[in-house]
Structure formats: C-alpha cells, structure tokens
Amino acid sequence: MDISFKFPNISFNYRVGCLIKKDNYVLLEENTDNNYYSFIGGRVKLGETSSEAIKREFFEETGLNVEVVRCMGIVENFFTSKYTKGACHEILIIYELKFTDKEAYKQDNIINKEEAKTSKFKWIAKDKITKDNFKPEILYNYLNQEELFHIINKDEVVNE
Questions:
Q1: Which of 18, 94, 100, 125 could form a disulfide with 65 if both were Cys (CB 3.0 to 4.6 A apart)?
Q2: Would you call 145 helix, strand, or coil by DSSP?
Q3: What is the DSSP letter of 52?
Q4: How far apart, in whole angstroms, are the C-alpha atoms of residue 9 and residue 48?
Q5: pLDDT of residue 116
C-alpha cells in the first residue's frame, strides 16, 4: 500500500526519486508530453524504507538492479497539483544510484515499462539541463551538489 492519502482539501505523498551518473551525463526521466526532465521515482509503500522503495521502483520501471550510492537530499514540497487542482503536501527523498551490472551503463536509453507513452529514461548531458526544463524547478540547483540538502518548497503556482 502506497503512503499516499487524500483529505477534502489536501493530499499527501511520500515519494522517492533518483538519478544515476555516467561521465558528464545523468539518467533522468523525460516527460514527453510536457518536454521536461525530472528524477526517476515513485511512492514509498507502508513498512518500506525509502532506500528499499527507490530500488524497487527503479526495478519495476526498468527491470534493472541498482545500489544506493548516497542520499542526496530531502524535500518538503507544498504545491497545487495540475492534475487534481488541489493542494498537495509531499515528502521527497532523493538518492544517487548506480547499476549493479556495469553493462547497463552502455544502454543509450532505458525503457520505462510503466509509463512508456508519456515518459522515457534518458542519459542527458549535464550542460543540457536548465532550470526551465527541469521539474521541480527548485531542485535544479542541487543536481550536482555533493552535500546532503534539505529544502522546504512552497509553490504558489500549479506544479507540473
């Protein structure tokens, strides 16, 4: 059971996200409908640690096994959903991962088995990622940070 619930005026999500590094590239999710990049991830299940959740989510979406390199940071995110038009409170923990099988790094793009129609996983050159094409935008400045970060983000606009 996902740790996600709704009240009349607000919904809550406990999520995990990740990226994998390769030379001057990072593996991110590309939303093909809206033309932006974001961390690969999903919801944490009840009784599951965040590190277990990100490994499970990545495997479910790609069929590839990964290991946690480090926790990159934590985001307390408050926003209005573009889908429900309702208020959301989200806890997001972001990890850097690495493939357990080195051969996986040779794949140009990695299939997103769960959402192939709207997104794909792509190796993106770090210099091609901009604040304008990365969501949530507040995390753009933390893509290359080596120190653990904690962000409290309160958006006034609809979150994409």
A1: 100
A2: coil
A3: H
A4: 27
A5: 58
pLDDT (0 to 100) of residue 114: 67
- Token couple for 12: 């809550």
What's the total number of domains in the chain? 1
Report whether the peptide linkage leading into residue 136 is cis, meaning its omega lies within 30 degrees of zero.
Answer: yes
Residue length of the chain: 160
For 76-87, b/e burial (b = at least 16 CB within 10 A) is ebebeeeeeeee
Nearest to 66 by CA among 79, 74, 57: 57
Tokens 């995110």, residue located? 77
Give the other-Cβ count within 10 Å of 92's Cβ. 22
- What CATH number does residue 121 fall under? 3.90.79.10
**Domain range for 106:** 4-159
Its pTM stands at 0.89
Apex CA 15: angle with CA 61 and CA 50, to 5°? Answer: 85
